[in-house]
Specification:
Keywords: ATP-binding, Cytoplasm, Glutamine amidotransferase, Hydrolase, Ligase, Nucleotide-binding, Purine biosynthesis. By secondary structure, the protein is an alpha/beta fold. It is about 20% helix and about 25% strand. The chain binds glutamine (GLN).
Length: about 220
């Protein structure tokens, strides 16, 4: 499988994603957004970073790059697409996934390990875990507060499209364990189809054992293996 890691001006987690995928035995290559998506890719990652300096809204400008038409088309054809952090913001801004990531409740950039509870283990991104598992993965964002209308949130819950919620180390979903004030402690969701997903925490930063951040993120990226 070859995964395209799409690089925009200001992306900065593209190399990390390639390294993490390589560690899992997955071929990955960085693709500059102006070059368009190669037609034969088997997966796409929209990586983290500060595309276009987070001007306007994080992800808003990258979402308007023509490559996002290619990403949408390949997603509609069934190719797995994952947006991580800034990539998650781009995913929502592109309507690959519903809702929006807005300024953290703290109004500060937060970089810290968090606990996540696996809500639905029957997706490619969570099949390596069991429902209810608690994993530890870092966050690093200023605009990670997931917001969505009440009715669309209810739809996400009803359709089992919430992948992970922020929790404490015992798996309790509490306000104290919600690092950014996200609705329902949501940390990651799927699109209309399970093979499209966005999440604010960084699984690629918890994949390489040498980084000392644990390897709990491997399960997410193993969707591409
Ligand atoms: N690590 C990231 O991708 C950061 C995302 C975005 N720049 C933010 O601060 O919210």
């Amino acid at each position: 499988m070859t995964v395209a890691v799409v690089q925009f001006g200001g992306s900065n987690c593209d190399r990390d994603a390639v390294r993490a995928l390589s560690h899992l035995g997955v071929d990955a290559e960085r693709v500059w957004h102006e070059d368009g998506l190669p037609s034969d890719v088997d997966g796409v990652i929209l990586p983290g970073g500060f595309s276009y300096g987070d001007y306007l809204r994080a992800g808003a400008m990258a979402a308007r790059s023509p490559i996002m038409d290619d990403v949408r088309a390949t997603a509609e054809a069934g190719t797995p697409v994952l947006g991580v952090c800034n990539g998650a913001q781009i995913g929502c801004e592109s309507a690959l996934t519903p809702g929006a990531f807005t300024t953290n409740a703290s109004a500060r950039f937060q970089c810290e390990p968090v606990h996540l509870r696996v809500e639905n283990a029957e997706t490619p991104w969570t099949a390596a875990y069991d429902e209810g598992d608690v994993i530890e993965v870092p966050i690093a964002h200023g605009e990670g507060r997931f917001e969505i209308s009440e009715s669309k949130y209810d739809d996400l819950v009803a359709d089992d499209r919430i992948l992970f919620r922020y929790c404490d180390s015992a798996g309790n979903i509490t306000d104290n364990a919600n690092p950014n004030g996200s609705r329902g402690n949501v940390a990651g969701i799927t699109g209309e189809s399970d093979h499209v997903a966005v999440l604010m925490p960084h699984p690629e930063r918890a994949t390489l054992p040498d980084l000392g951040r644990g390897t709990d993120g491997q399960g997410v990226l193993s969707a591409f293996a």
